[in-house]
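Consider a typical record:
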Amino acid sequence: MAKDMTLGQVARHRSSRIAWLLLVISLALTVGAWRFSIMLVEDRTQARFETQSLQLKTAIEERLLNYEQVLAGSAGLFAVADLVGRDDWRLYVSKLDINRYYPGIQGIGFTARVEGRDVVDFVRRIREQGLPDYLINPAGTRAEYHPIVFLEPSTQRNRRAYGYDAFGDPAHRIAMEQARDSGEATMTGKVVLVQEEVDDEQAGFLMYFPVYEGDKVPKILDERRLRLRGFVFSAFRMNNLMDGIVGLISPFLDVRIYDSDVAVEDALMYGSNLGSLDNEYTFEMSAKVQHGGRTWLLQTRTTPAFDYLASDPRPLIVVVAGLIISFLLFAFFLVMVRSRLLAQINAGRYRAITEGASNVTLILDRKGKPKYVSPSSEKILGFDPTNLTELSLEQQVHPDDWPTLQQCFEQALIEPGKALPVVHARIRDADGGWRDMEGTYTAMIDVPGVHGVVLSLRDLTELKAAQSELHRLAFYDPLTGLANRQLFRDRLEHVIRRCKRSGQPAALMFLDLDGFKRINDTLGHDVGDELLKNVAGWLQDCVREEDSVARLGGDEFVVLLSEVAGSDAAAKVAENILSRLCQRIRLGEHEVGVTVSIGLAMIPDDSDEPTSLMKYADLAMYRAKELGRNNAQFYTPAMNIQAARRMLQQEELSNAVEADHFMLHYQPKFDLERETVLGVEAFLRWQHPERGLIPASQFIHLAEESGLIVRLGEMALRQACIQIQALERAGFEGLRMSVNLSSRQIADPRFLDMFRQVVTETGVVPERLELELPPELLNEDAESVQRLLGSLHDIGVYLILDNFGARNCSLAAMQRLPLDAVKIDHAFIRDIPYNATATDVTSAVIALAHKLHLTVIAEGVETRQQLNFLRASGCAQGQGNLFSYPLDEDALIGFLVRQQEDATL
């Protein structure tokens, strides 16, 4: 097997790490050399590009300087001859041979300075010189003219320029005036030559050199202007001028020349034939060419053709050679590692047999005396392997197991080379304890290096521990350590069988934490898990050792009372659990309230079948929640009918939500002192096709249980906002709209985003909305509630604590929350003034609210006596049937109109 080891297998062996390291280093060096060679090639290419660009700039400057010298010589012709004729000028220009020595010049000419009063005589003289059609253009009366008189070579194209007065063109005039005043050659900006044909139009420029009377340039500016005779000039077509230079020096560069010091498209005078390669270049260079009073921007860029010609194969050679050398070195080292591994495998066979880390290996002589013990004996049994050979094997084996081991040893001697069946034995460790082990004998008397019987013992202690852990994971809840559903069902079946035999009753409790989902959603799963662990401990403290507590999942627990005297005893245990679990607990930075709802089923009175018992206890638990939570209920047969009815109602409610069978009624809210309408409260109604209008009190609890309350709440809020807009359009701008919220709505993490979306979509001003909050909100996590209510209050929403006084409320929480008002529960108002307790409590609630600087609102006001009492006690607002029943939209508008009319009488 070792001889068949491939290089691929060797490469995966940890001994080949040096080979891999060498390969990585070699590849890194190859990449470095490759990058360096690329850098050298790029540097050489850039140097070549910059050289060509600078040579091109120099050539352009030299060419312009040569042309200036030609013009200077031409001007000198007028200095040595008083009168230069057309033939003289033609002879002079022909001797220059500009096509050969000065490529790019369209022509060399002379413009004469003519005073406005002399223009007629001047034209007549020129016509007498053989140009009968000579005419100054453009036409017009000017103080001074500079028409072209001579222009050679006298081609058909150049003859079209005779008589052209460039001084009338601002681009020419600027250059001509600058040449006149400075006495030096100047160039125009980008112009189109008058010689150009329409189908051959290209950019051009002219270079002017002044000609003065006399043989010297006047030193004084006014004298230069007075003695000016005219200008000699050269006309240049940029493409003709530059193509020869570019083609000779930099044929594969993209060249642009701008008549400006910046690259402006309108100022482009020349673009090489590669000008379409704007965005495909490696290097770019810009230089300024200054001559004749003008500044040109020379821009050069590389092209793919330039890069191709400048490319170098050496980087490719470097990378290919480096890869070959790297992999050859890698393969060479793998071969060396393979040879070493084969040697280690052959040399380590004996140690692989005797020194396994998980087994204790012994070699016994023919008499059964140990002559070798593997080092693993120290780790597993705690013995020093060098001293263990002096001990007797019989002394370390349990007396009951020794005969079996001895028998297998003797059989191994009889059948050498054969592995015998596994035997189990208890072996004493160094601490004197017994460890469960199993082992086999193999006789290797004639095997070199062994010469004995090999006993291999495997420790089963960890295996049994793992089996115990698997059992725990299979039957116990990992979070709380309680029995899980499977183990609890086994225990329940066992208790049912015992009850059938003995006739002694037992009880099953189904427990569900109240509001646990809200805690999980608002405070996080870590806080929820910590609460579940605390509840598990409290439940175990409430029952006997022979009873069972299990967690079925989420916040559902079950308690199995294995033996009770009757339902009264089971009820007492349930009361203890309610008392123990009804408390507030601090978890980290949060304080949460805990209550539980319990359902009980008796065994075997209610059923002797596990599935039915679990169902009955669950139904009883739901009944406990319907009755206000934090209580315990026994199962009754009527609960089955009620559960079926609840399922039908839930389905019917869900269908009604989908079909939008809900509407709002509105009850006016009055200022008790002035008896004027301040606003309205929205009440949700279900428009049932058979039962008619159903008030929210008959289906809101079902909506909360099923989770439909979130959608219903959004529908009610949106309809209320739409109604606010309708009231404004009807002329009732100052009224507020109250909308009731449930704890489940507020706990929804999307509530605040939903509220903002509805307000934005309907266009309602938030100050027109009042949100009535349930009192149990004060018992939730104060930090999260305060953050939510603070956000609502910041945008202008009016916050009211509903049913104040009916339930336990944390006054400390009230002080921290941004409340605006409290609404006294109608249960107190109903008994006024006949019940002294109700009047005292109501007065106290009003006084407390005033101390907290909160507005007081009374609901359920139905009599004048109640109204008078509330006024006397300082209650500011109220609503109830005394003023108006809840009204639909049309009736509300009519009611408000009547109130408005009564107020004006």
